[in-house]
Each structure stands twice: as C-alpha cells, then as structure tokens.
Amino acid sequence: RSVYDGEEHGRFMEKLEARIRNHDREIEKMCNFHYQGFVDSITELLKVRGEAQKLKNQVTDTNRKLQSEGKELILAMEELKQCRLQQRNISATVDKLTLCLPVLEMYSKLREQMKSKRHYPALKTLEHLEHTFLPRVSHYRFCKVMVDNIPRLREEIKELSMSDLKDFLESIRKHSDKIGETAMKQAQQQRNLDSIVSQQPRISGGKKSKKEFGAGSELEVKNTSPMSEQDSGILDVEDEDEEEEVPGAQDLVDFSPVYRCLHIYSVLGARETFESYYRKQRRKQARLVLQPPSNMHETLDGYRKYFNQIVGFFVVEDHILHTTQGLVNRAYIDELWEMALSKTIAALRTHSSYCSDPSLVLDLKNLIVLFADTLQGYGFPVNQLFDMLLEIQDQYSETLLKKWAGVFRNILDSDNYSPIPVANEEVYKKIVGQFPFQDAELEKQPFPKKFPFSEFVPKVYSQIKEFIYACLKFSEDLHLSSTEVDDMIRKSTNLLLTRTLSNCLQNVIKRKNVGLTELVQIIINTTHLEKSCKFLEEFITNITNVLPETVHTTKLYGTTTFKDARHAAEEEIYTNLNQKIDQFLQLADYDWMALEPGSRASDYLVDLIGFLRSTFAVFTHLPGEVDVHSTMSGKVAQTACMSACKHLSTSLLQLLLEAEVRQLTLGALHQFNLDVEECEQFARSGPVPGFQGDTLQLAFIDLRQV
After folding, report:
1. At residue 224, does pLDDT exceed 50?
2. Which residues form the Exocyst complex component EXOC6/Sec15 N-terminal domain (predicted)?
C-alpha cells in the first residue's frame, strides 16, 4: 500500500525482480548440488512405474477374477435379502393375524350364539368384541365394517329377545289357567294336610315339614325347564300316593326368556323401557283375564276356569317379583291386585245373582274360599273376598228359601190331612225319631193307633233341620266365630219360618175347596209344630255350641208363625161356615102374604140345621186322646158354633127387616116363627159340648124379641 501511495512501484518492481533472480540463482545452486540424487530418484521412479504397472495389471486381473467370482455371491445375497424381507413380512403378518384372529373368532362366535338364540351370551360377546378386541385392530377395513354393524346387531338382539318375551307372554296367557289350577290344587292339598296334621300331629309332622320345604323352594328360578312341560300330563297328578306331591306352579313355566330379556335390556341401558313394556303388556293381560265369560254363572266349571286364570296370573307375577330385582315391585303388584279384586268381586256379584241353585251357590262359595286361601298363601290380602262371601250368603239363603218353598208346597199338597195311623212299634219309633213327640197315654195304647197330627208335621220338621244343615254348610271355612254362625243360622231359620213356611201354610188355608176337617187338622198340626220350636232351638245350640242365653243371640220366631197360621185356619173355618149359611139362605123363599103357616119349619132351614149338626159332629169326633187336643178342638168348635148361630140369627133378622118387605101376614109370621124355633131347638140340643147353660141360645135372643 505504501508502494502505491508513494508511486514507487517501478522501483519496487525492479527490486522484486532482483530478488527473484537472487532466488533463482540459489535454486539453481541447490539443484546443481542435488542433481545426481534427482537423477537417481527419477531412475528409481521409472522402475517403480513399471512395477506399478505390473501391480496395476495384477490388481485389474484380480479385480476381474473377484468380480467374476462375486456374481454368485451377490445373487445369493439378493436372495438372502428377499428371504429376510419375506421373513420380516411373515412375522409382521403373523403378529397382525394374532390380533385379528380373536376378533374374527369372537365375531363367528357371536353369529353362532345369535343363530342358536343365546341372546344374552351374544350380547356379552358383542361387548367384549367392541371394547376389548376391535380397538387393537381398528385400522383394518373389515374392523370398520364390524364397528358399523355393532349397533345393528344390538338392535337385532333386542328385537329377538323381545320376540322371545312376546312368545313367553303369549304362552303364560294361554297356560295361566293350568298354572292356577296347579296352585289351587296345591293349596287344597296344603289345607288337607293341615287338617290331617291337626288331627294326627305326630304321624304327619314329617310330611308337613316336607310340604313346607317344597312350598318354600318354589321361589327358586327354573331356567332349564322346557316350555313343553306346560302341556305335559303333570297336571293330572292327584292323590296317587301320599308321598307324591303336586308340582309347584313355577315348575310348569320356563321363566328364562324374561330373565334373558331383562339382562339384555339392562346391559343395553334400556331397562326402564323393558320394565314399562312388560308391565303394560301384563296389565293388558290382566284386563283380559279379569273379563268373565258371559255364561260363567251357568256351571261351576265356568267359575273354576275364571279363578284358575286369575290365580295363574298372580302366581307368575309373584314369582317374577321374588326372582327379579325391580322388574315388578310390591306397589305394582298391589295396584294390580286391587284392580283384580274389585273386578272379580263385581263379576261374582253380577253372575252369582243369576244363580238359583243353592248347591251351585254352595260349590261356588267353596271355590271362592279355595281361591282366597290360595292367593292368601302368596301374600295377597283377601278380606274383601270373605266380606263378599257374606253377601253371597244372603243370596244363598234366598235360594234356599225358594227351594224350601217348593219343598214345603209339595209336602202340604201331598198331605192327606188326617192323623197318622201306626200299625207297629217300628213305625211308631220312626215317626218319633223324626219329630220330638212324647205322649205317655198314646204310648200305652195298643196298636194300631194314631198320632194326632198328619204326615206333614214330621216332614216339615225334618226339612227345617235340613235347611239348618244347609245354612251351616255355607258357614264352613269362612273364618266366622261360633256366635256369628249361630246368628246367621237363626236369622235364616227365622226367615224360613216367618216368610216361606208361613206363606205356604197361608196359601193352603186360603185355597178354594179346603174342607173344615183339613182346616181343623192344620190347627192341630201347627200346634205341635209350635211346641217343637224349643227343640229346634236346642238343635241349633248343639251344632253351634252357643247357648241361647248368650247376649245378642237371635231368638226363633217359629211360635208366631204357627200361631198366625192357626188363627188364619180358625178364621177360615168361621168364614167358610158363614159362607155355607149364606148359600142356604139364598134358597129362602118366604111368602110374606101367606094366609096360613106351614106345618113345619122351612125346608132350606131344615137342611141348613142338618148341615150344621153334621159339621159340628166332625169336631166332636176329632182325635181327643190328649187333653190339649180336645181342649183346642173344643174351643174352635165352640167359637165356630157361636159364630155360625150369630151369623144365622143376624141373616134371618135381615130377611125379616129388609126394605122390600112392606107388609106381612100373621100366617107368614107364624111360619117364620117355626123357623126360629127350629134354630132355638138346634141351640138347645148342644151341637158342641162345653157351653154353659143357655149361652148358645142367646145368639137368637134379638131375633126372638123382634
């Protein structure tokens, strides 16, 4: 820089060239000094070049040979490389297949399970497949297809399990009557067993324990029993052997479809949907079951089938309640039972009201009791059923009263209304066994002899006892106290006496063409029946063990019934006599303008007096072996005779004083006087014993005065 700045480069170049020449001279000197060594080196280098050329040729030749020899090795190495690559690919494939094969196996297993309708295991397999296996191989296309299919498979499982549930619901709807029949049969056997145990506790104690164990084990789930068992002959087992028991109602049904469907819907998170569907369907079935057939009242089998279906329905629901957690609950069961109870009671009230056969009503009562006991054994409250049975009891009493009205009518219509003749001791004891009659004087009399009453007395008395037995049958198994049973029997018997028997007696007394002899016999008969009422009281006391002195005990009103019938018969006697007298008086034909009287009383009056004499002779010849009979018939005869004489006197007085008779002659009056004298003569003759003095003649005193 200083050279250029000072513009001395020319001089600098000169100096530099001089410097170069100096160096060249030094180099030349040095070269000259080393020249021989250089020549030697060149010579050696030339020698080395020849050797190097040889070496090059050898290397080239060796390389050529090596290349020739290495081609096979290269090919082998390429093959080895491909093998290693394939091996690595195979290993990777095996690893991937190891992951994929379980997925495919699970999917295949899922298909097999769905094909064999094992829906719950299929759902579990699907869960494992989705959450465990598919995430490991999710990048494969077939896995994506599977993932896309999972929701559809779930829906398919839901639909198939729901289809099984529908089949199950349809099956139990069809077989509920068999289930109920089995349950009721089992309840009946339990009742029979309990009664045996109460009589022979030591002998039957072991069997009772066995039965109780069987009843307790009924609640176990029977998942493996085939549905076909419902149609087998298993229901025909009955009392073939003491050791053999009727199968539990749950043994007849395979509940596994319900459990499977419940589990499936629970796993799928749709349990509430399933519960709602199940309860809705069962409510519909309950309404169908509770709808009674229109002709149910015609036969007992109609009622039995109706009860079997209801029992079968609730046995199934009770089993579901105890074997599933929350599918049905106690509130739901109680609600269904309340509905069933109200509808059943309404149906029974309606249909039982059509029933007029007391034996059918009694059988229905026994069936209702068995129905109530069966359901009570499953924990259902049945008090309302027993309350309704008390209503049916009133209806039963009415049907009994109608039946016994016909029985009494037949007895009264077929009676000959004459004392029962007794030819030997055997017949006498038979009648005394039928009717409580004791008479020392009659027992002393030789055979043949006669009872004072006619045949309808022992027959009516026996039928009253039969009626009491019929009432007692209805009270069995109603869980009533002896006082309530006694009260029920007494009230029904009172209705029989005061209404049914009273009406029958009144109809007999009031019917046309009834004879005076028959009426008198009815009076005697009703007197004996009245006296037998105390024996009926004793009879009821013996069968109910309730003393008549007990507070609130109903008394029998039979005495009133028979007194009323007797008074009606007496009134009918008086009325009949007066009617006969009026018929005779219609024949009276007085000539009030006659100049001369006849030689004797009028013909119609003579005939009338003759009729009265023969009539009262019947009273005189009635059975009078016992004082009470003669006294009773005597009083009736005296009253009838006095009534007849008064009526005759009044009628004759009306004839004499009637407005059409404006004048009469002395001859006509004398003729009328003869007729009055005939009447007075009749009164004096004492047609009926027992009148004091001229008591009977006083009936004609007013007529005589006129």
Report:
1. no
2. 15-184
**Residue 59 token pair:** 């290397």
Residue 548 and residue 401 share a domain = yes
**Low-confidence winner among 248-257, 393-402, 527-536, 628-637 (lowest mean pLDDT):** 628-637
| 324 and 414 housed in the same domain | no
What SS3 state is found at 449? strand
Same domain, 506 and 643: no
Q: Cα-Cα-Cα-Cα dihedral of 34, 39, 44, 47, to 10°?
A: 170
Evaluate if residue 500 carries a pLDDT over 90: no
Residue with tokens 């999710």: 138
Q: Which residues fall within 8 angstroms of residue 503, CB to CB, at 6 or more apart?
A: 405
Cβ atoms of 592 and 663 closer than 8 Å: yes
In Å, how far are 429, 590, 655 from 582, measured between CA atoms?
47, 16, 12
Q: Which of 532, 552, 579 corresponds to the end of one domain? A: 579
What letter represents residue 521's amino acid? Q
Instruction: Answer yes or no: is 547 within a domain.
Output: yes
Q: Give the 3-state secondary structure of 247-312.
A: CCHHHHCCCHHHHHHHHHHHHCCCHHHHHHHHHHHHHHHHHHHCCCCCCHHHCHHHHHHHHHHHHH
- For residues 294-300, give the mean pLDDT: 78
Token pair recorded at residue 673:
């006087």
- Closest of 350, 427, 342 to residue 395, by C-alpha: 350
Q: Residue range 611-624: average pLDDT?
A: 68
User: Per the domain annotation, does 177 fall within a domain?
Assistant: no
Q: Which residues, in sequence order, are CB contacts of 292 under 8 Å at separation 6+?
A: 306, 347, 351
Q: Measured between alpha carbons, how far is 150 from 287 in angstroms, rounded to an integer?
A: 39
Whether a cis peptide bond, with omega within 30° of 0, leads into 448 is yes
Q: Is residue 98 part of a domain?
A: no
Instruction: Say if residue 81's pLDDT is above 90.
Output: yes
Range of the domain at 687: 587-705
Contacts of 626 (CB under 8 A, 6+ apart): 439, 441, 442, 452
What is the pLDDT averaged over residues 97-107?
81
- Identify whether the C-beta of residue 641 lies closer than 8 Å to the C-beta of residue 697: no
Q: How many angstroms separate the CA atoms of 578 and 588, rounded?
A: 15
Identify the CATH number of the domain in which residue 596 sits: 1.20.58.670
Contact by Cβ (8 Å): 339, 314? no
Residue 245: per-residue pLDDT:
54
Per residue in 658-686, pLDDT (tens digit) is 877 778 888 888 888 888 888 888 888 87
In the three-class reduction of DSSP (H, G, I as helix; E, B as strand; rest coil), residue 421 is classed as strand
More confident of the two residues 199 and 377: 377
